[in-house]
Amino acid sequence: MEIEDEAWTRAEPEAEALVWRAAQAVLDAHEDIEGQGIVILLADDDSVQVLNRDFRQKDYATNVLSFPSPPNPEGQIGDIVLAFGVCAREAAEQGKPLAHHLQHLVAHGVLHLLGYDHQDDAEAQAMEAFEREILAGLDIPDPYAEPASPEG
Fold first, then answer.
1. Burial of 139 (0-12, 13-18, 19+ CB in 10 A)
2. DSSP per residue over the chain, as a string?
3. What is the pLDDT of residue 152?
4. Which is it for the CA torsion 139, 63, 4, 25, positive or negative?
């Protein structure tokens, strides 16, 4: 775990513990996997934009990137990188605590490392269902639920 952008800990002092709880929750639900080594980087938008451009040919910052590792003797399953500005903005727009959004995106990233995807509706539904299950175990509300409409 590395915190490249201190904005993470200024905004969420428990960021490191939250990240590990979310990652471990996914790994615990997959006891059948071999290896559990994950590198997680809490970065800034510029760093994530460069990675997204260089590895995915998409020249913009995104919330989370996952880089699966090939099979290796160290048991490393991959790397995850999160962009502070994008994540903080999304959390605010969605009316969610940054802590909840961070844990959701870490779980999402770990699931990608384990082979989950959301390229079609069936894959997306399966991945989202698993995310809901993991997050419920962390006492985080359904991240895909529609926000309650204001009364009035």
1. exposed
2. -EE--THHHHH-TTHHHHHHHHHHHHHHH-TT-S--EEEEEEE-HHHHHHHHHHHHS--S--SEEEEEPPP-TT-EEEEEEEEHHHHHHHHHHTT--HHHHHHHHHHHHHHHHTT---SSHHHHHHHHHHHHHHHHHTT---TTSPPPPPP-
3. 44
4. positive
pLDDT tens for residues 44-94?
999 999 999 999 999 999 999 999 998 888 888 999 999 999 999 999 999
What is the token pair recorded at 147?
């926000």
Cβ atoms of residues 111 and 131 within 8 Å = yes
